[in-house]
């Protein structure tokens, strides 16, 4: 990935016009708003969701993506309370990680009440790592996507590393991409898990341009296979941000599941890293 980044930078030297590209890209990056996946603050959200959201807002985050917890998808708040609290703090509840299960109709109704845009299936509802199973799941996702669209919502899927395993030479994630309808199933690409799986996010941006309206921007320690602060792991964060347009990304959620000290210290580091690119 470092070689590819150098190639892009060297190519910009070919003309006077392209010399302006890095400055334009960096300015765009600095002016971008970032979201956060609330699993990063899971313990704090369970203990005191409103106080925690206030602290998250103070870090400069503008978009919120919720996650499942022992108190539900909204950490003990009602869906409306969750959405209204975020708005009052200058943030938007734009997405939520959910399960595709027998409660999905209520999940959609709650998402409408919270005024969020996306419902993201957080794990593979599959009985096995086979092409046939992934094709079956793709059809389930198409059906869920159609149901969400009727409620004014958008349905999507968040990957881990196991989706990039292969059967008979076929990458299972590609099977999922090829068998889901892009207008019904909106992919949230977790960039950290892609690189842990030994794949390149840029390959997927090129192969499926515009298919990834949501990202999890997550740096990873390749040796421990855990998340880490930006600049300490394997993910080339600046290069990823240069490829935003090709990927079609609308919302970038920072997620960190493990921390050097605390989630707030780690997220402060991450936000400062992005500001100082």
TrEMBL record:
Gene Ontology molecular-function annotations: isomerase activity
Q: Which residues form the signal peptide?
A: 1-27
One Pfam family this sequence matches: AP_endonuc_2
Domain (Xylose isomerase-like TIM barrel): give its ranges: 54-276
| Keyword Isomerase found | yes
> Which InterPro entries does the record cross-reference, listed alphabetically?
IolE/XylAMocC-like, TAT_signal, Xyl_isomerase-like_sf, Xyl_isomerase-like_TIM-brl
Report the protein name in the record: Sugar phosphate isomerase/epimerase
* Organism per entry: Maribacter aquivivus
């Amino acid at each position: 990935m470092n070689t590819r980044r150098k190639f892009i930078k060297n190519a910009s030297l070919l003309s006077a016009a392209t010399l302006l590209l890095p400055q334009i890209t960096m300015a765009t990056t600095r002016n971008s708003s970032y979201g956060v996946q609330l699993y990063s603050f899971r313990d704090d959200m369970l203990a005191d969701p409103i106080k925690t959201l206030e602290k998250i807002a103070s870090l400069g985050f503008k978009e919120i993506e919720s996650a499942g917890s022992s108190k539900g998808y909204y950490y003990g708040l009602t869906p409306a309370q969750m959405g209204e609290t975020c708005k009052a703090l200058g943030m938007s509840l734009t997405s939520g990680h959910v399960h595709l299960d027998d409660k999905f109709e209520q999940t959609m109704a709650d998402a409408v009440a919270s005024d969020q845009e996306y419902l993201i299936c957080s794990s593979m509802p599959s009985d096995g790592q086979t092409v046939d199973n992934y094709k079956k799941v793709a059809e389930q996702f198409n059906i869920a996507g159609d149901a969400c669209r009727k409620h004014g919502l958008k349905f999507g899927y968040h990957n881990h590393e196991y989706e990039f395993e292969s059967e008979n030479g076929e990458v299972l994630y590609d099977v999922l991409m090829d068998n889901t309808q892009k207008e019904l199933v909106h992919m949230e690409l977790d960039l950290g898990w892609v690189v842990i799986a030994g794949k390149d996010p840029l390959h997927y941006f090129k192969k499926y341009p515009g298919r990834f309206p949501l990202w999890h921007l997550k740096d990873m320690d390749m040796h421990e296979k855990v998340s880490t602060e930006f600049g300490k792991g394997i993910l080339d964060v600046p290069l990823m941000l240069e490829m935003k347009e090709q990927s079609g990304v609308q919302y970038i959620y920072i997620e960190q599941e493990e921390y050097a000290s605390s989630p707030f210290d780690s997220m402060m580091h991450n936000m400062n890293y992005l500001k100082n690119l």
